[in-house]
Amino acid sequence: MGRFLNWQDKTFKVGDTITVGYKIREVVKGKEKERVQDFTGILIKVRGEGDNKTFTVRKISKAGIGVERIIPVASPWIAYIKPVRETTYTKARALFIRDRSGSEIRKRLYKSKK
After folding, report:
1. How far is Cα 51 from Cα 74, in angstroms, rounded to an integer?
2. Which residues contact 74 (CB under 8 A, 6 or more apart)?
3. Any domain includes 57
4. DSSP letter (8 states) at residue 61
């Protein structure tokens, strides 16, 4: 357990903003198609060990509603995980962002280094 997410030789910390490319299968006019949908948000929690390891990403939708997605690290549906912004946050979980506005979240997660 801890605050780091390791995925294909990349390491992400709790508080980082990441983009998770998630594969989605659809049936369109009788044909099965697969596409990749991006889910960009803040990594708020890493939980478990080994094959049971999961991580939670939270974003604010265009309607202003908070959306959290719990994703298993060993999922075959993950196409990629890309970093968007690194954090200076040092705690193991960033659950406080559920009750904060965007500017308050940025102040606590992305403090300037002095």
Report:
1. 6
2. 51, 53
3. yes
4. -
Q: How far apart are CA 106 and CA 87, in angstroms?
A: 9
Query: Considering the entire predicted model, what is its pTM?
Result: 0.82
Query: 3-state DSSP call for residue 50?
Result: helix
Looking at residue 29, its amino acid is K
Is 114 part of any domain?
A: no
Render pLDDT for 58-93 as a digit per residue (tens, 0 to 9).
998 888 888 999 999 988 999 999 999 988 888 888
Q: Which domain holds residue 29?
A: 4-109
pLDDT tens digit string along 5-16? 777 778 888 989
What are the distances in angstroms from CA 71 to CA 93, 100, 103, 107?
Answer: 16, 23, 26, 26
Identify which of 96, 43, 91, 93 has the alpha carbon closest to the alpha carbon of residue 71.
43
Domains: count for the chain: 1
| Mean pLDDT, residues 22-27 taken together | 92
Contacts of 44 (CB under 8 A, 6+ apart): 14, 15, 56, 57, 58, 68, 93, 94, 95, 97
